[in-house]
Amino acid sequence: MSPINDIFDELNADLAPGQEKRLNFDEIELKGGHLPGETVDFSHGDVDAFEPIPEALDNFNHGYKEIGAAQAYTVYRGREDIRLDVAEKLSSFSGTAIDYENELIITPGTQGALFLAAGAMITPGDKVAIIEPDYYANRKLVHFFRGELYPVTLDYMGHGDKAGIDLKQLEDGFKDGVSTFIFSNPNNPSGVVYSKGEITEIGRLIKKYDVNVIVDELYSRQVFDGRIFTHLSSLNIVPRENIITIIGPSKTESLSGFRLGVAYGAKAIIDRMEQLQAIVSLRAGGYSQIVLKNWFNEPDHWMIERIEAHREIRNELLRLFREADFEVRTTEAGSYIFPRLPGLSIDCENFAKILNKQAKVIVTPGTQFGPGFKDSIRLNFSQDKEKAVDAVKRLIKVAGFYKVE
Amino acid sequence: MSPINDIFDELNADLAPGQEKRLNFDEIELKGGHLPGETVDFSHGDVDAFEPIPEALDNFNHGYKEIGAAQAYTVYRGREDIRLDVAEKLSSFSGTAIDYENELIITPGTQGALFLAAGAMITPGDKVAIIEPDYYANRKLVHFFRGELYPVTLDYMGHGDKAGIDLKQLEDGFKDGVSTFIFSNPNNPSGVVYSKGEITEIGRLIKKYDVNVIVDELYSRQVFDGRIFTHLSSLNIVPRENIITIIGPSKTESLSGFRLGVAYGAKAIIDRMEQLQAIVSLRAGGYSQIVLKNWFNEPDHWMIERIEAHREIRNELLRLFREADFEVRTTEAGSYIFPRLPGLSIDCENFAKILNKQAKVIVTPGTQFGPGFKDSIRLNFSQDKEKAVDAVKRLIKVAGFYKVE
Prior knowledge:
By secondary structure, chain A is of the alpha/beta class. Helix content of chain A is 38%, strand content 12%. Chain A has a 7-stranded mixed beta sheet, with helices on both faces.
C-alpha cells in the first residue's frame, strides 16, 4: 500500500458525526423489532430546537447589502473591525489580553482553527500528546500531519472535583520529547471541566518542557451548576509564544451553518495559520464573518435561559440512563453525554448502526474518541426535549435486545 | 532553522492577492509625486461593480429560514439534493458524465477544492508538474505537501491559436517520474485558453504515463470572441480514476463571499477529499451551499451581458497598455490581464508596493505566478470601467517615473 493510502485509512470519516447518512448497513443482523418514533440525530445539536442567536441572519444580510465587496473579500485572517470586536469580547471573557492585529485569526469553523493550528505546529515525526477520550479530529490531525500520537488517559468517570487527567503520564510524554499537546476543555465527549488545579499543573508542565499547546474551549460558555471554568491562557503560566486557544459560536450559539471559528494566541503561530489559510480556503466566508458581531452580544437572559434549558434536558437523560444501568458522568459543561453501554453482545460501532436502523436514533460511537472506548456512545443533547427523551427511551430498549444475559 | 520554518517561508502570503493591506512600505524610496484618484484593487474582482447572481441572497435566507438544521449540518461532501442539481448542470456544461453521489464534492471555495485535491494526491517527495506562469497557490500547495516542483513553461506571449505549453517539457517530466500535474485552464494569470490540440495531447500524455491531473477551470464560463474551450474531462482520453476538475461560482458569478467551490472526477480521490474535509473545515458553509442552485441558473441574458461588459473593459485596458509600450497578450477567457512592465529600474514586487502607495492602485506582482516573472503584473479587470481606466492611466504614469532611460 502506498503511504497516501495509509494516511487516508487513518482519516476514515464514515463513522464520524454527521456522516451516518452515508453508511452501509446491509451486513448487520438485527434482534428485536423496529421501534417507531421520530428520527433524532444526537451526533450534533439541533439548531431548529435551539435556534441561532437572534438577528444573526439580519446581520449577514447587512454585510451583503450594505458592506458588499469589502465584506466579501477580507484579508485572510478576517476583516479588521470584526477582529477588533471579537478580540475585545474574548479578552474580557477569557481574562487574557489579545492583540487583535497580531494574535487572532477568524477561521471556517473551529474545525478550521484546529486544522490550521495543528498544521502550523506539527512536522512529520513529531510526538503529539492527546487525551483519551477526546475530540476525534485531534488524533486524525496528528495522523494527517504524520506526527506520532502520545495518548494520555482521562479517568473521566472517577472524580467529582477533577476532570481526571493523568498528569504523571503527561509529564512522562513531555520528558519523552512531546512537542505539541492538543486537548479540549470542556472535554469532548465526556463534558467534564478541568479543575483549576489540573489546568495550573498542565500549564506548569508545558512551561517546564517548552511544549506548544492547542486548547479547544469550544464549549466553555455553557457551564452548569456553578462549576468554575479556568482558561489556561488566563493563568499567565504558559509563555505567550507557546499557546493557541480555539473557540467559536457553532455550539451553544447554534451558528454552525455560518462556519465560523476563532483562534487566538502566539503571534508567530497565528502568522503561520494565516499563511496556511491562504492555500486551504483563503478566508472564513466573507459575509459570514460579520455574524461574529452578534456573538457575546446576545439579548439579555438569552444565554442564561439556554443554559437552563440544556441543564433540564441533561438531567432527564442522565436519569433515564442511570435507571437503565448505563454508567455516565454528569456533564459539567457543553451538550455532550458519554454513557457506557451495559454489557452488550455488540460493540458501540455496531450498536450505533443498529440503533439508527431499528429506532432512527443517531449516536456517535465511542471509538471515534479513542480506540479503547468500545463500550461507550456520545450524545449531543442540544435537542428538542420531548423528542430526545423518547429517543433515549428507544435507545435503552434497543440496548436491551442485545444485552448479554 | 527547523523544517516547519522552511515550509512556512515558502508559503509567505504577504504579497498574495488581497493581502496588500497588511504590507509594510516604510523602506521604499519614491520618485514622482502622489497621483490622486479612487483606490482600485485589481488583486480581485469588484463584486460591487459586478454584483452576485440576482436572488443568491434570497436563496441563502430561504435555506436558513425554511430548511434550517438540515441546511446547517450537511454531510461533509455537501447536501445531497444540491450535489444532484450541480452534477446535472456541470455534466451538461462540461460534456462529462458526473455521478452526484460518488464523483462530486462541494468545498469552501475553489481554493478549498484545490487544497483537498492536492492533499489527496501528493505525498512527501512526489514530483508534481506545474505551469509557469500559473495560479500562485499551485506551487505553494506542492511545497506544503512536501512534493517536488517540476515547472513546465507556458510561452503565453507567443501564439494566437495555442496557449503555448511546452509539451516536450511536460513529457520529459512525466518520463522523469512526475505523479501529479496541476494546471488552470483558462490560465491564471495570462487569460489564455489551451487549444483543443494542446488539451488532447496533455490528455494523451497523462494516460500514457499514468499521471494524476487536477485541472482548475474556474474561469471557463467567461470566454471571449468565440474562442473554443475544451474540457479535458470531456475528451474521455484521461482515465476516470486519474482526473479531478475544479470549478466554482466565485469569479464570473461574483459569489466569492459565500465561499463555494466544486470538484468532480475520480471516485477514490473524491472519497479522500471528503475524509480530508472532515478535519479541515467539516463542510462548505451549510446555508451557503444552497446558493449553488442559483449557479448556471442565472436570468436570461445575464451571462451574455456580463461577458460583453468584461470584453469592453478588457479592450480599453489592452489599448491603454499597448499605447504605453506594455507587452500584453489578449485575454481569451476570464478577467485577468498579465502585462509586462516596460524596462523599469525596479522589479514588479517593488512596483506593486510603490503603485499602491503613490496611486492607490493595487496589482499582484508577477513573481506570485513563478519566480521568472519579475517584470510582469496581474490585474483582475472585473471592475467599474471608469475607475479601472483611470487607475490604469495612473499605473502607466507611475511606471513612467521609474523607467530606465
